[in-house]
Amino acid sequence: SCSKVGDPHPGQPYKGGNFCAFLPDNREGQKTAVLLKKAFEQGLTFQIKSFNGEERVTWGLIPHKTSWDGGKARNGYPDAQYLREVCTVL
After folding, report:
1. For the domain with range 27-89, which CATH number is right: 3.30.390.130, 3.40.30.10, 3.40.50.2000, 3.30.360.10?
2. CA–CA separation, 76 vs 82, rounded Å?
């Protein structure tokens, strides 16, 4: 495993994971996708955290919509402010 800045225990192995997020297929969503790609390339999308003594990759501080539905409370849509909020963070 390779550790980056923000790794709580550099040099220790950590578990990865599968991460999926959704954006609308419109101009704003496509613009946001470009910004998210830049953030990913700079190592800002994920972080490593300890859970019960085990190092794991988790989402970082950039908010992602991980569901199509359920609203803001469940990291889903509808959320009229999401694209504006995520672009502000980015």
Report:
1. 3.30.390.130
2. 9
Structure tokens belonging to residue 3: 């550790």
User: Which pLDDT tens digit goes with each residue over 10-45?
Assistant: 777 888 889 999 999 999 999 999 999 999 999 999
Cα dihedral across residues 76, 79, 81, 83: positive or negative = positive
User: What is the reported pTM?
Assistant: 0.80
- Tokens 């992602």 locate to 64
Helices and strands of the chain, counted as H and E runs: 2, 2
